[in-house]
Structure prediction request, 407 residues.
Amino acid sequence: MSAWYDPGAMVGTTRRLRLDEALGARLGDRDAHALRRRLRVLTGGVGPRVMLDGRSVIQLSSNDYLGLASHPALTRAACDAIAQYGIGAGSARLVGGTTDTHAELEAAIAALKRTDAAVVLSTGYHVNTGVIPALVGAGDQIFSDALNHASLIDGCRLSAAAVSVYRHADADHLDTLLAASSPARQRLIVTETVFGMDGDLAPLAELVEIARRHDAWLMVDEAHATGVFGPHGGGLADHLGLSEEVDVQMGTLSKALGALGGFVAGSDALAAHVVNEVRTFVYTTALPPSIAAAARVAIDLVMREPERRHRLWRHADFLRKQLTSAGFALGASRSQILPVVVGSADTAVRFSDELLARGVFVPAIRPPTVPDGSARLRVTPMATHSEDDLQEAVDVFVAAGRQAGLI
Prediction:
């Protein structure tokens, strides 16, 4: 037997080949249904125009709604924090990863959201998958909107509570389910306020009233509303004057605030409970101080510069009017998120490719992110787009839509 022959290595190689074959078959099934995802690599910075495959294209797919991700003030704050604190936080928040920068950020979030307190976690996904199981468990019941984000769905599953799904934004259906529900130790209503794939709004005032009538807690996901809605960018709850009526507000620092991370805001008791009971807070390394510092500056800009929101809304209204007039269906969108629904995944991919060939970058959104038969291009303007950018994008949409037979 040769000295290099290792039977164990041969067995390991065979096992890995079987794994690759199994995964290859699953990828092949995705290819057959136009559902395979691939990464596109951007070069240079983020913004209303990006470099993709060596050329500048208009980006209409970013969650950086206010254009803060590349703002010089955020960059400067992050660099200053790196010089002072280093790159990483070094440990979890409870061990030694909480800096004065984290505390300042949490105070700023509480002020923005008009709550007693706030707690920052490393991502919005950590918030939803950690907070929901810390609020309810076996014997309790959750009532979740049918189109809630995957992180909310996963948080519901992890909680071990019974889950009832109410029809999307249907307050009457929610009321009926709550009235018919079995006595539970606690009942929790969970919804996005601005739905990330459809751009429509939850009937928040009705949900508040229903929660009050049935003695249920209400948790809202303000990821796409924070920084965009409200007189100072506090979100939809603030916009409607309902901040004090919502028990749990969550949001992200990674969309309109241009940074990274998630937060939960509410009462002092809620904040203390999160610090003690939320596993995704307790057992995760803290957000880097540089990111916390940048997010803190972003909140200052959001509150001091309402013209950013006003410009974003003008851009969204322009695109909504132009795309609708051209014949595209945008659903019930009432926000900066404009879903151009085209139907099949294959059609969405081909339309996206045609747009990119003409200089506009809007990736296709396909199942399971959206329901079968509702594949779309999720159009999201930024405050930093120029009027010329938007007019060019509209012209490209019309030309590509006619070629594809969509309009």
Observations:
- The CA atoms of residues 125 and 151 lie 5 Å apart.
- DSSP finds 15 helices and 14 strands in the chain.
